[in-house]
Amino acid sequence: SRRRRLGATRTCASWAGCSPRPSTTSRAVRGTRRRPSTAVRRRSAPSSHLVALLRRYEAWHRRCGPGSPLFGEAVEHLRSGRNAARSECQYAVWTPFNGLGNRMLALASTFLYALLTDRVLLVHAPQEFDGLFCEPFPGSSWTLPAGFPIADFDATFTMLSPTSYKNMKKAGTINGGDRVNVTAEGLPAYVFLDLIQSYTDAAFCEADQRVLAKFNWMVVKSDVYFATALFLMPAYRRELARLFPEKEAAFHHLARYLFHPSNDVWGIVRQFYEAYLAGADERVGLQVRVFQEVPVPFETMYGQIMRCLEQEGLLPKVALAQQNAAAARNTSAVPPPDGRKTKVTSILVTSLSPEYYERIRGVYHANWTETGDYVVVHQPSHDGVQHTEARGHNQRALAEIYLLSFCDRIVTTAVSTFGYVAHGLAGVRSWVLLRSPSPETPAEPACVRSSTVEPCMQAAPRQMCGAAKGSDIGGLAPYVRHCEDVHGGVKLF
Ligand code: GDP
Protein backbone atom coordinates (compact mmCIF):
# COMPACT_ATOMS: atom_id res chain seq x y z
CA SER A 1 0.00 0.00 0.00
CA ARG A 2 1.18 3.49 -0.76
CA ARG A 3 -0.46 4.71 2.43
CA ARG A 4 1.91 6.20 4.91
CA ARG A 5 0.19 6.05 8.26
CA LEU A 6 0.79 8.00 11.39
CA GLY A 7 0.75 4.79 13.34
CA ALA A 8 0.71 5.77 17.01
CA THR A 9 -2.08 4.93 19.36
CA ARG A 10 -0.91 6.33 22.67
CA THR A 11 -2.27 9.57 23.95
CA CYS A 12 -0.37 12.77 24.46
CA ALA A 13 -1.04 14.78 27.54
CA SER A 14 -1.08 18.42 26.65
CA TRP A 15 0.37 21.54 28.20
CA ALA A 16 -1.18 21.40 31.63
CA GLY A 17 0.04 18.32 33.51
CA CYS A 18 1.89 16.88 30.54
CA SER A 19 2.93 13.32 31.15
CA PRO A 20 6.52 12.15 30.75
CA ARG A 21 7.97 12.01 27.30
CA PRO A 22 7.55 8.50 25.91
CA SER A 23 3.78 8.51 26.34
CA THR A 24 3.05 11.46 24.11
CA THR A 25 1.65 10.86 20.69
CA SER A 26 3.43 13.63 18.87
CA ARG A 27 6.70 12.42 20.32
CA ALA A 28 6.06 8.76 19.72
CA VAL A 29 5.17 9.30 16.10
CA ARG A 30 7.84 11.68 14.99
CA GLY A 31 10.47 9.16 14.09
CA THR A 32 8.15 6.93 12.14
CA ARG A 33 6.43 9.78 10.33
CA ARG A 34 9.48 11.24 8.73
CA ARG A 35 10.36 8.35 6.49
CA PRO A 36 13.41 9.24 4.45
CA SER A 37 12.30 10.43 1.08
CA THR A 38 14.11 10.02 -2.18
CA ALA A 39 12.99 13.51 -3.15
CA VAL A 40 14.96 15.32 -0.50
CA ARG A 41 18.09 14.97 1.56
CA ARG A 42 17.20 14.68 5.21
CA ARG A 43 19.39 15.88 8.05
CA SER A 44 21.92 13.83 9.96
CA ALA A 45 21.08 12.62 13.47
CA PRO A 46 21.78 14.96 16.39
CA SER A 47 25.40 14.83 17.53
CA SER A 48 26.25 12.76 20.59
CA HIS A 49 27.49 15.96 22.18
CA LEU A 50 24.07 17.59 21.75
CA VAL A 51 22.31 14.52 23.09
CA ALA A 52 24.57 14.43 26.15
CA LEU A 53 24.05 18.15 26.77
CA LEU A 54 20.27 17.75 26.55
CA ARG A 55 20.34 14.92 29.12
CA ARG A 56 22.43 17.08 31.47
CA TYR A 57 20.11 20.01 30.85
CA GLU A 58 17.05 17.91 31.72
CA ALA A 59 18.60 16.91 35.06
CA TRP A 60 19.49 20.55 35.66
CA HIS A 61 15.97 21.65 34.81
CA ARG A 62 14.55 19.16 37.31
CA ARG A 63 16.90 20.47 39.98
CA CYS A 64 16.16 24.14 39.39
CA GLY A 65 12.73 24.09 37.76
CA PRO A 66 9.33 25.05 39.19
CA GLY A 67 8.47 23.12 42.34
CA SER A 68 12.08 22.62 43.43
CA PRO A 69 13.47 24.23 46.61
CA LEU A 70 16.09 26.05 44.52
CA PHE A 71 13.35 27.56 42.38
CA GLY A 72 11.54 28.71 45.52
CA GLU A 73 14.70 30.42 46.74
CA ALA A 74 15.33 32.12 43.42
CA VAL A 75 11.76 33.40 43.30
CA GLU A 76 12.15 34.83 46.80
CA HIS A 77 15.22 36.76 45.63
CA LEU A 78 13.29 38.04 42.65
CA ARG A 79 10.47 39.13 44.92
CA SER A 80 12.91 40.96 47.18
CA GLY A 81 14.00 43.10 44.22
CA ARG A 82 17.66 42.19 44.66
CA ASN A 83 19.92 40.10 42.53
CA ALA A 84 21.55 37.47 44.74
CA ALA A 85 25.35 37.40 44.81
CA ARG A 86 25.58 33.74 44.11
CA SER A 87 22.81 31.55 42.92
CA GLU A 88 23.07 27.94 41.93
CA CYS A 89 20.33 28.31 39.35
CA GLN A 90 19.91 31.06 36.79
CA TYR A 91 16.87 31.45 34.59
CA ALA A 92 15.92 32.69 31.13
CA VAL A 93 12.21 33.43 30.99
CA TRP A 94 10.86 33.59 27.46
CA THR A 95 7.82 35.73 26.76
CA PRO A 96 5.93 35.50 23.46
CA PHE A 97 5.71 38.21 20.86
CA ASN A 98 4.15 38.32 17.38
CA GLY A 99 2.84 35.34 15.38
CA LEU A 100 3.41 31.67 16.02
CA GLY A 101 6.30 31.30 13.57
CA ASN A 102 8.11 34.22 15.18
CA ARG A 103 7.42 32.74 18.58
CA MET A 104 8.79 29.32 17.75
CA LEU A 105 11.97 30.80 16.24
CA ALA A 106 12.52 33.03 19.26
CA LEU A 107 11.77 30.25 21.75
CA ALA A 108 14.18 27.83 20.07
CA SER A 109 16.83 30.59 20.08
CA THR A 110 16.22 31.30 23.76
CA PHE A 111 16.59 27.61 24.51
CA LEU A 112 19.93 27.50 22.71
CA TYR A 113 21.01 30.61 24.57
CA ALA A 114 19.97 28.99 27.86
CA LEU A 115 21.97 25.86 27.00
CA LEU A 116 25.07 27.90 26.21
CA THR A 117 24.85 30.11 29.29
CA ASP A 118 23.71 27.51 31.85
CA ARG A 119 20.29 28.98 32.38
CA VAL A 120 17.03 27.15 32.93
CA LEU A 121 14.45 27.93 30.27
CA LEU A 122 11.03 28.98 31.52
CA VAL A 123 8.07 30.05 29.47
CA HIS A 124 5.50 32.72 30.14
CA ALA A 125 2.43 31.18 28.54
CA PRO A 126 -0.54 33.48 28.11
CA GLN A 127 -3.87 31.76 27.45
CA GLU A 128 -3.49 31.80 23.66
CA PHE A 129 -0.17 29.97 23.93
CA ASP A 130 -1.50 27.44 26.39
CA GLY A 131 -2.71 24.23 24.75
CA LEU A 132 -0.24 24.31 21.89
CA PHE A 133 2.71 22.28 23.09
CA CYS A 134 3.51 19.43 25.45
CA GLU A 135 6.03 20.00 28.20
CA PRO A 136 9.45 19.22 26.73
CA PHE A 137 11.52 18.46 29.83
CA PRO A 138 10.81 15.18 31.58
CA GLY A 139 9.91 15.30 35.25
CA SER A 140 9.57 19.06 35.35
CA SER A 141 7.78 21.98 33.81
CA TRP A 142 8.88 24.92 31.73
CA THR A 143 5.77 26.95 32.55
CA LEU A 144 6.00 29.83 35.01
CA PRO A 145 3.87 28.79 37.97
CA ALA A 146 0.93 30.77 39.30
CA GLY A 147 2.00 33.43 41.76
CA PHE A 148 5.19 34.26 39.90
CA PRO A 149 6.24 37.77 41.05
CA ILE A 150 6.07 39.27 37.55
CA ALA A 151 2.49 39.15 36.30
CA ASP A 152 1.83 41.72 33.61
CA PHE A 153 4.47 40.87 31.03
CA ASP A 154 2.99 42.98 28.25
CA ALA A 155 3.08 46.16 30.29
CA THR A 156 6.37 45.42 32.02
CA PHE A 157 8.43 44.52 28.97
CA THR A 158 8.29 47.24 26.37
CA MET A 159 11.00 49.02 24.40
CA LEU A 160 10.96 51.75 27.04
CA SER A 161 11.31 49.45 30.06
CA PRO A 162 13.94 50.73 32.49
CA THR A 163 14.88 47.10 33.14
CA SER A 164 15.84 46.47 29.54
CA TYR A 165 19.55 45.83 29.13
CA LYS A 166 20.02 48.39 26.42
CA ASN A 167 18.12 51.04 28.41
CA MET A 168 20.12 50.26 31.55
CA LYS A 169 23.28 50.65 29.54
CA LYS A 170 22.09 53.95 28.12
CA ALA A 171 21.08 55.23 31.55
CA GLY A 172 24.41 54.17 33.04
CA THR A 173 22.73 51.81 35.55
CA ILE A 174 25.18 49.19 34.40
CA ASN A 175 28.04 49.29 32.04
CA GLY A 176 28.81 46.67 29.46
CA GLY A 177 32.48 47.62 29.31
CA ASP A 178 35.23 45.34 30.56
CA ARG A 179 36.63 47.95 32.90
CA VAL A 180 33.60 48.35 35.08
CA ASN A 181 33.33 45.88 37.87
CA VAL A 182 29.62 45.55 38.41
CA THR A 183 28.98 43.33 41.38
CA ALA A 184 26.09 40.94 41.16
CA GLU A 185 24.52 42.31 44.37
CA GLY A 186 24.53 45.80 42.94
CA LEU A 187 22.27 44.79 40.09
CA PRO A 188 18.49 44.85 39.83
CA ALA A 189 16.67 41.57 40.44
CA TYR A 190 16.30 40.82 36.76
CA VAL A 191 17.28 42.03 33.34
CA PHE A 192 15.06 42.29 30.30
CA LEU A 193 16.79 41.26 27.10
CA ASP A 194 14.87 43.02 24.37
CA LEU A 195 15.70 41.31 21.08
CA ILE A 196 12.75 42.44 19.04
CA GLN A 197 13.54 42.97 15.35
CA SER A 198 15.80 46.02 15.21
CA TYR A 199 17.11 45.59 18.75
CA THR A 200 19.25 42.56 18.13
CA ASP A 201 22.31 44.83 18.34
CA ALA A 202 21.89 45.01 22.07
CA ALA A 203 23.48 41.89 23.37
CA PHE A 204 25.93 40.09 21.17
CA CYS A 205 29.19 41.44 22.54
CA GLU A 206 31.24 39.34 24.90
CA ALA A 207 31.43 42.26 27.33
CA ASP A 208 27.63 42.45 27.39
CA GLN A 209 27.42 38.75 27.97
CA ARG A 210 29.75 39.03 30.96
CA VAL A 211 27.41 41.55 32.58
CA LEU A 212 24.29 39.65 31.61
CA ALA A 213 25.75 36.50 33.18
CA LYS A 214 25.57 38.17 36.60
CA PHE A 215 21.79 38.43 36.54
CA ASN A 216 20.10 35.39 37.99
CA TRP A 217 16.85 36.24 36.24
CA MET A 218 16.61 37.27 32.64
CA VAL A 219 13.46 37.84 30.61
CA VAL A 220 13.86 37.41 26.86
CA LYS A 221 11.41 38.88 24.39
CA SER A 222 12.08 38.43 20.72
CA ASP A 223 10.45 37.60 17.41
CA VAL A 224 13.71 36.77 15.69
CA TYR A 225 15.75 33.63 15.12
CA PHE A 226 18.66 35.11 17.03
CA ALA A 227 20.37 31.72 17.37
CA THR A 228 22.29 32.62 14.22
CA ALA A 229 24.03 35.49 16.02
CA LEU A 230 25.25 33.12 18.74
CA PHE A 231 27.16 31.20 16.06
CA LEU A 232 29.03 34.41 15.26
CA MET A 233 30.21 35.02 18.82
CA PRO A 234 33.75 33.76 19.45
CA ALA A 235 32.81 32.67 22.99
CA TYR A 236 30.31 30.09 21.72
CA ARG A 237 31.80 29.03 18.41
CA ARG A 238 33.71 26.00 19.64
CA GLU A 239 30.86 24.59 21.65
CA LEU A 240 28.38 25.21 18.84
CA ALA A 241 30.63 23.46 16.36
CA ARG A 242 30.59 20.38 18.60
CA LEU A 243 26.86 20.59 19.21
CA PHE A 244 25.97 21.10 15.56
CA PRO A 245 28.58 19.62 13.21
CA GLU A 246 25.96 20.21 10.51
CA LYS A 247 25.15 23.86 11.18
CA GLU A 248 22.36 23.80 8.67
CA ALA A 249 20.48 21.46 11.00
CA ALA A 250 20.68 23.59 14.17
CA PHE A 251 17.06 24.73 14.23
CA HIS A 252 15.92 21.35 12.94
CA HIS A 253 17.38 19.55 15.95
CA LEU A 254 16.45 22.22 18.48
CA ALA A 255 12.86 22.42 17.27
CA ARG A 256 12.35 18.69 17.03
CA TYR A 257 13.59 18.33 20.59
CA LEU A 258 11.65 21.25 22.04
CA PHE A 259 8.31 21.31 20.24
CA HIS A 260 5.71 18.60 20.61
CA PRO A 261 2.18 19.49 19.59
CA SER A 262 -0.46 18.94 22.26
CA ASN A 263 -3.19 16.30 21.92
CA ASP A 264 -5.59 18.80 20.44
CA VAL A 265 -3.15 19.97 17.81
CA TRP A 266 -1.90 16.49 17.09
CA GLY A 267 -5.50 15.39 16.62
CA ILE A 268 -5.93 17.91 13.81
CA VAL A 269 -2.63 16.91 12.24
CA ARG A 270 -3.35 13.24 12.40
CA GLN A 271 -6.89 13.35 11.05
CA PHE A 272 -5.97 15.57 8.17
CA TYR A 273 -2.84 13.67 7.32
CA GLU A 274 -4.56 10.29 7.35
CA ALA A 275 -7.52 11.51 5.35
CA TYR A 276 -5.81 13.58 2.67
CA LEU A 277 -2.09 13.06 2.53
CA ALA A 278 -1.19 9.54 3.63
CA GLY A 279 -2.45 7.88 0.45
CA ALA A 280 -0.49 10.04 -1.97
CA ASP A 281 2.75 9.01 -3.64
CA GLU A 282 4.14 12.45 -3.13
CA ARG A 283 3.15 15.42 -0.98
CA VAL A 284 3.88 18.98 -2.01
CA GLY A 285 3.35 21.65 0.65
CA LEU A 286 2.51 25.14 -0.57
CA GLN A 287 2.47 27.94 1.99
CA VAL A 288 0.99 31.18 0.74
CA ARG A 289 1.35 34.20 2.97
CA VAL A 290 0.29 37.63 1.81
CA PHE A 291 1.48 40.29 4.23
CA GLN A 292 -0.70 43.28 4.91
CA GLU A 293 2.23 45.62 4.39
CA VAL A 294 2.93 44.14 0.95
CA PRO A 295 -0.52 43.42 -0.47
CA VAL A 296 0.34 41.40 -3.56
CA PRO A 297 -2.78 41.12 -5.74
CA PHE A 298 -4.27 37.63 -6.04
CA GLU A 299 -3.58 37.22 -9.77
CA THR A 300 0.07 38.27 -9.36
CA MET A 301 0.65 35.84 -6.50
CA TYR A 302 -1.25 33.03 -8.18
CA GLY A 303 0.75 33.52 -11.38
CA GLN A 304 3.98 33.44 -9.42
CA ILE A 305 3.02 30.24 -7.64
CA MET A 306 2.13 28.46 -10.88
CA ARG A 307 5.33 29.63 -12.59
CA CYS A 308 7.34 28.34 -9.65
CA LEU A 309 5.60 24.96 -9.55
CA GLU A 310 6.02 24.53 -13.29
CA GLN A 311 9.57 25.84 -13.68
CA GLU A 312 10.83 23.76 -10.79
CA GLY A 313 9.01 20.64 -11.97
CA LEU A 314 7.16 20.32 -8.69
CA LEU A 315 3.89 19.22 -10.27
CA PRO A 316 2.94 17.47 -13.49
CA LYS A 317 1.94 19.93 -16.17
CA VAL A 318 -1.66 20.38 -17.11
CA ALA A 319 -2.53 18.70 -20.43
CA LEU A 320 -3.08 20.67 -23.60
CA ALA A 321 -6.63 21.29 -24.81
CA GLN A 322 -6.62 18.46 -27.40
CA GLN A 323 -5.41 15.97 -24.81
CA ASN A 324 -8.21 17.04 -22.53
CA ALA A 325 -10.70 16.69 -25.33
CA ALA A 326 -9.43 13.23 -26.21
CA ALA A 327 -9.58 12.19 -22.60
CA ALA A 328 -13.15 13.44 -22.42
CA ARG A 329 -13.99 11.17 -25.42
CA ASN A 330 -12.55 8.38 -23.33
CA THR A 331 -9.83 7.45 -25.76
CA SER A 332 -7.27 7.17 -23.01
CA ALA A 333 -5.47 10.22 -24.27
CA VAL A 334 -3.04 10.51 -21.44
CA PRO A 335 -1.79 7.16 -20.21
CA PRO A 336 1.46 7.28 -18.29
CA PRO A 337 4.00 7.26 -21.14
CA ASP A 338 6.07 4.35 -19.88
CA GLY A 339 3.19 2.10 -18.90
CA ARG A 340 3.91 2.62 -15.23
CA LYS A 341 1.28 3.00 -12.54
CA THR A 342 -0.25 6.44 -12.27
CA LYS A 343 1.12 8.55 -9.49
CA VAL A 344 -0.93 10.67 -7.09
CA THR A 345 0.50 13.94 -5.85
CA SER A 346 -1.28 15.64 -2.99
CA ILE A 347 -0.83 19.37 -2.69
CA LEU A 348 -1.31 20.77 0.77
CA VAL A 349 -2.14 24.45 0.56
CA THR A 350 -1.85 26.51 3.72
CA SER A 351 -2.99 30.09 3.64
CA LEU A 352 -5.24 32.45 5.51
CA SER A 353 -7.17 32.80 2.26
CA PRO A 354 -9.11 30.04 0.43
CA GLU A 355 -8.62 31.53 -3.05
CA TYR A 356 -5.30 29.93 -3.98
CA TYR A 357 -6.55 26.50 -3.02
CA GLU A 358 -9.78 27.01 -4.96
CA ARG A 359 -8.05 28.13 -8.13
CA ILE A 360 -5.37 25.41 -8.10
CA ARG A 361 -7.90 22.74 -7.25
CA GLY A 362 -10.12 23.97 -10.07
CA VAL A 363 -7.25 23.65 -12.54
CA TYR A 364 -6.49 20.04 -11.64
CA HIS A 365 -10.16 19.08 -11.37
CA ALA A 366 -10.95 20.32 -14.82
CA ASN A 367 -7.86 19.06 -16.61
CA TRP A 368 -5.78 15.99 -17.11
CA THR A 369 -2.07 16.17 -16.61
CA GLU A 370 0.41 15.56 -19.42
CA THR A 371 1.76 12.50 -17.68
CA GLY A 372 -1.63 11.04 -16.82
CA ASP A 373 -0.74 11.33 -13.14
CA TYR A 374 -3.22 12.74 -10.67
CA VAL A 375 -2.99 15.86 -8.59
CA VAL A 376 -5.32 16.40 -5.65
CA VAL A 377 -5.44 19.62 -3.69
CA HIS A 378 -6.35 20.18 -0.03
CA GLN A 379 -6.42 23.03 2.45
CA PRO A 380 -7.06 22.44 6.15
CA SER A 381 -8.33 25.91 7.15
CA HIS A 382 -8.68 29.47 5.93
CA ASP A 383 -9.20 31.78 8.86
CA GLY A 384 -9.06 34.94 6.74
CA VAL A 385 -7.04 37.06 9.11
CA GLN A 386 -4.37 36.49 11.71
CA HIS A 387 -5.73 36.05 15.25
CA THR A 388 -2.67 35.41 17.37
CA GLU A 389 -4.73 36.17 20.49
CA ALA A 390 -7.03 33.18 19.86
CA ARG A 391 -5.99 29.73 21.00
CA GLY A 392 -8.04 27.77 18.43
CA HIS A 393 -6.56 29.83 15.61
CA ASN A 394 -3.03 29.16 16.88
CA GLN A 395 -3.77 25.45 17.20
CA ARG A 396 -4.82 25.33 13.55
CA ALA A 397 -1.73 27.30 12.58
CA LEU A 398 0.55 24.92 14.48
CA ALA A 399 -1.18 21.89 12.98
CA GLU A 400 -0.59 23.33 9.51
CA ILE A 401 3.05 24.03 10.22
CA TYR A 402 3.43 20.35 11.12
CA LEU A 403 1.41 19.17 8.12
CA LEU A 404 3.66 21.22 5.85
CA SER A 405 6.66 19.70 7.55
CA PHE A 406 5.44 16.22 6.60
CA CYS A 407 5.52 17.09 2.92
CA ASP A 408 8.26 15.83 0.63
CA ARG A 409 8.71 19.18 -1.10
CA ILE A 410 7.80 22.51 0.41
CA VAL A 411 7.20 25.84 -1.26
CA THR A 412 7.17 28.78 1.14
CA THR A 413 6.53 32.50 0.90
CA ALA A 414 9.49 34.87 1.27
CA VAL A 415 9.93 36.52 4.68
CA SER A 416 7.40 34.27 6.42
CA THR A 417 8.57 32.75 9.69
CA PHE A 418 5.61 30.34 9.48
CA GLY A 419 7.29 28.83 6.43
CA TYR A 420 10.75 28.87 8.05
CA VAL A 421 9.51 26.74 10.92
CA ALA A 422 7.78 24.26 8.61
CA HIS A 423 10.80 23.53 6.43
CA GLY A 424 13.11 23.71 9.45
CA LEU A 425 11.12 21.00 11.23
CA ALA A 426 11.05 18.96 8.04
CA GLY A 427 14.78 19.32 7.57
CA VAL A 428 14.36 20.22 3.90
CA ARG A 429 15.34 23.20 1.79
CA SER A 430 12.23 24.89 0.57
CA TRP A 431 11.52 26.66 -2.68
CA VAL A 432 11.05 30.29 -1.71
CA LEU A 433 8.49 32.41 -3.55
CA LEU A 434 10.52 35.60 -3.81
CA ARG A 435 9.17 39.02 -3.02
CA SER A 436 9.03 41.39 -5.95
CA PRO A 437 10.35 44.94 -5.40
CA SER A 438 6.79 46.15 -6.00
CA PRO A 439 3.61 44.21 -5.17
CA GLU A 440 2.15 44.85 -8.63
CA THR A 441 5.11 43.45 -10.56
CA PRO A 442 5.65 39.71 -10.78
CA ALA A 443 8.77 38.44 -9.05
CA GLU A 444 11.47 37.13 -11.34
CA PRO A 445 12.48 34.39 -10.87
CA ALA A 446 9.24 33.21 -9.31
CA CYS A 447 11.10 31.16 -6.70
CA VAL A 448 14.53 29.91 -5.77
CA ARG A 449 15.64 26.87 -3.85
CA SER A 450 16.84 27.91 -0.41
CA SER A 451 20.54 27.32 0.17
CA THR A 452 19.82 25.91 3.61
CA VAL A 453 17.28 24.35 5.91
CA GLU A 454 18.00 27.02 8.52
CA PRO A 455 15.61 29.91 9.17
CA CYS A 456 16.74 33.39 8.26
CA MET A 457 17.71 35.72 11.08
CA GLN A 458 15.85 38.59 9.52
CA ALA A 459 16.94 41.46 11.76
CA ALA A 460 20.63 40.72 12.02
CA PRO A 461 22.75 42.95 14.27
CA ARG A 462 24.13 45.83 12.23
CA GLN A 463 27.52 45.19 13.71
CA MET A 464 28.95 42.21 15.53
CA CYS A 465 31.44 42.98 18.28
CA GLY A 466 35.00 42.43 17.28
CA ALA A 467 34.19 42.80 13.59
CA ALA A 468 35.71 45.73 11.72
CA LYS A 469 33.38 48.71 11.41
CA GLY A 470 31.23 48.50 8.33
CA SER A 471 32.05 44.82 7.74
CA ASP A 472 29.39 42.70 6.15
CA ILE A 473 27.79 40.37 8.67
CA GLY A 474 27.08 37.91 5.87
CA GLY A 475 30.83 37.52 5.35
CA LEU A 476 31.91 37.12 8.98
CA ALA A 477 32.16 33.34 8.94
CA PRO A 478 32.34 30.71 6.21
CA TYR A 479 29.05 29.25 7.41
CA VAL A 480 26.81 32.33 7.23
CA ARG A 481 25.37 34.07 4.23
CA HIS A 482 22.64 36.52 3.43
CA CYS A 483 19.15 35.14 3.06
CA GLU A 484 17.56 34.80 -0.37
CA ASP A 485 14.39 36.51 0.81
CA VAL A 486 15.69 39.16 3.23
CA HIS A 487 18.96 40.53 2.04
CA GLY A 488 19.88 42.22 5.33
CA GLY A 489 19.26 38.95 7.17
CA VAL A 490 21.72 36.09 7.60
CA LYS A 491 21.45 32.37 7.90
CA LEU A 492 23.64 29.40 8.64
CA PHE A 493 24.36 26.89 5.94
P1 GDP B 1 4.79 35.29 9.54
O1 GDP B 1 4.00 36.50 9.95
O2 GDP B 1 4.43 34.77 8.19
O3 GDP B 1 6.26 35.49 9.71
O4 GDP B 1 4.39 34.06 10.49
P2 GDP B 1 3.81 34.03 11.97
O5 GDP B 1 3.47 32.59 12.22
O6 GDP B 1 4.75 34.64 12.92
O7 GDP B 1 2.50 34.90 11.96
C1 GDP B 1 1.48 34.67 11.04
C2 GDP B 1 0.25 34.11 11.75
O8 GDP B 1 -0.88 34.26 10.87
C3 GDP B 1 0.33 32.64 12.04
O9 GDP B 1 0.95 32.34 13.24
C4 GDP B 1 -1.13 32.27 12.02
O10 GDP B 1 -1.72 32.72 13.20
C5 GDP B 1 -1.64 33.09 10.86
N1 GDP B 1 -1.39 32.39 9.59
C6 GDP B 1 -0.62 32.81 8.58
N2 GDP B 1 -0.64 31.92 7.58
C7 GDP B 1 -1.40 30.89 7.97
C8 GDP B 1 -1.78 29.65 7.37
O11 GDP B 1 -1.38 29.29 6.27
N3 GDP B 1 -2.58 28.83 8.10
C9 GDP B 1 -3.02 29.18 9.33
N4 GDP B 1 -3.82 28.33 9.99
N5 GDP B 1 -2.70 30.35 9.93
C10 GDP B 1 -1.88 31.19 9.25
From TrEMBL:
Its main subcellular localisation, reduced to a broad class, is Golgi
Which Gene3D superfamilies would you find in this protein's record? 3.40.50.11340, 3.40.50.11350
**Do you know which Pfam families this protein is assigned to?**
XG_FTase (PF03254)
What UniProt keywords are attached to this protein's entry?
Cell wall biogenesis/degradation, Glycoprotein, Glycosyltransferase, Golgi apparatus, Transferase
Q: How does it sit in the membrane?
A: Single-pass type II membrane protein
Name of the featured protein = Fucosyltransferase
Q: Where in the cell is it found?
A: Golgi apparatus, Golgi stack membrane
Could you tell me what this protein does? May be involved in cell wall biosynthesis.
InterPro entries in UniProt: XG_FTase (IPR004938)
Region annotated Disordered, chain positions: 17-44
Q: Does the keyword Glycoprotein apply?
A: yes
Q: Which GO terms describe its molecular function?
A: galactoside 2-alpha-L-fucosyltransferase activity
Task: Say yes or no: keyword Cell wall biogenesis/degradation present.
Answer: yes
Q: Which family does it belong to?
A: Belongs to the glycosyltransferase 37 family.
Q: Name one GO cellular component term.
A: Golgi cisterna membrane
PANTHER family reported in the protein's UniProt record: FUCOSYLTRANSFERASE, FUCOSYLTRANSFERASE 2-RELATED
Q: What is its EC number?
A: 2.4.1.-
GO terms, biological process: cell wall biogenesis; cell wall organization; xyloglucan biosynthetic process
Report biased composition (Basic residues) as residue ranges: 30-44
